[in-house]
Design a protein that fits this description.
Layout lengths: L26 E5 L6 E5 L12 E5 L1 E3 L3 E6 L6 E8 L4 E7 L9 E4 L4 E8 L5 E7 L3 H8 L25 E4 L11 H9 L3 E7 L22 E5 L1 H12 L4 E4 L1 H10 L9 E5 L14 E5 L6 H10 L1 H13 L10 E4 L1
Parallel strand pairs: 1-17, 3-12, 3-14, 4-11, 14-16
Antiparallel strand pairs: 1-2, 5-6, 5-8, 6-7, 7-10, 8-9, 9-10, 12-13, 13-15, 16-17
Helix pairs in contact: 5-6
């Protein structure tokens, strides 16, 4: 199975640069994975595709202002540090640019010294472990100095940082948003609850590795980045009970899907707990627990398009993507959505 098997041609003008004024006004392509049948609707129409007893699983992670701009002590020139994963209270795994200037022992300062960092270790993949020094509360300093880490294909400045957060974001720790959830409003979620659909939450802190391209020709040789997840006991119970009662488990986004598939056993029982997952889902994978998926349109040759291809079939997905291009759907993080059932 080759990476090039998951390529499709996407005109640059279809990459959404700004969110719509109203979250739920985005378009929704509904795809029947058994027949390949497609209907074109709006995200606000989602409730008519849901049934009492279904369980919607959302990822409640919250994006932190993880992009820090500073300078190396005693030097001029801008240094960029992305916070990827918190290791201890003051030590983070980071992505740095330019990397050649930030070897072990190098020191960086941000905001006229309000925050300082020292490179503790250069990791095998080129990431750095950085120990930060500051007075006060780290999160408050980060809110003051950090910027929202928008994906590299978005070139417009975001006027309202909350538009890169879901309305239900609460667990701080992501370097990127779980973008399938950006379409929901509080009112739409309330409508769904009132239908008798349960809404359960899990947490998976999304890393910048989600944007890294697959660089190997053979898909099976790709190694996924690791991300931290949490499944709470009461939420696992909600999901398991819904599954046993015959309801569908509908994941909002590939991050929710990867969390459930990481924490479920081969019998489809979800287990509470936390840990790191590097699960890589591509065609041939047997899903343990997910029955339907709400997701955005993903980059060509990415691990995300491989995941949706594993769920719906590669030919079915690529045909749906060609239709989306023809119908001028908006793509990627601020783009339109799919409901695959």
């Amino acid at each position: 199975m080759k990476t090039s098997d998951f390529y499709y041609d996407l005109p640059q003008e279809l990459i959404a640069q700004d969110p719509l004024e109203k979250r739920s006004a985005s378009r929704l392509m509904c795809l029947d994975r058994e027949t390949g049948t497609i209907s074109h609707e709006h995200f606000s129409d989602l409730p008519k595709h849901l049934k009492p007893g279904d369980c919607l699983v959302i990822n409640d992670t919250k994006v932190i202002p993880a992009r820090l701009l500073g300078r190396r002590e005693g030097h001029t020139g801008t240094i960029e540090i992305f916070l990827l994963k918190r290791k201890t209270a003051d030590v983070w795994e980071t992505l740095v640019r330019p990397g050649k200037k930030l070897r072990t022992g190098a020191r960086v300062e941000f905001g006229d010294g309000l925050l300082k960092g020292e490179i503790m270790e250069v990791l095998p993949d080129g990431n750095r472990l950085v120990r930060f020094e500051y007075e006060g509360i780290f999160e408050e300093i980060l809110d003051k100095l950090g910027e929202m880490p928008l994906p590299p294909y978005i070139h417009h400045k975001l006027t309202d940082p909350n538009r890169y957060q879901t309305v239900y974001a609460r667990a701080e720790g992501s370097a990127a948003a779980p973008t399938a959830g950006l379409h929901f409003t509080d009112e739409l979620l309330e409508e769904i609850r009132n239908m008798g659909v349960q809404i359960a939450h899990v947490t998976l802190h999304v890393g910048l590795g989600t944007f890294r391209p697959v660089k190997v020709d053979d898909v099976t040789n790709h190694r996924m980045h690791s991300e931290y997840y949490i499944v709470e006991e009461d939420q696992a119970e909600i999901i398991n009970n819904a599954k046993k009662a015959g309801g569908r488990i509908i994941c909002v986004g590939t991050t929710s899907c990867r969390t459930l598939e990481s924490a479920a056993d081969d019998q489809g029982n979800l287990h509470a707990g936390d840990g790191d997952t590097d699960i890589f889902i591509y065609p041939g994978y047997r899903f343990k627990i997910m029955d339907a998926l709400i997701t955005n349109f993903h980059l060509p040759e990415s691990t995300l398009i491989m995941l949706v291809s594993a769920f719906a079939g590669k030919d079915t997905i690529l045909s749906a993507y060609r239709t989306a291009v023809e119908e001028r759907y908006r793509f990627f993080s601020f783009g339109d959505a799919m409901f695959i059932q």
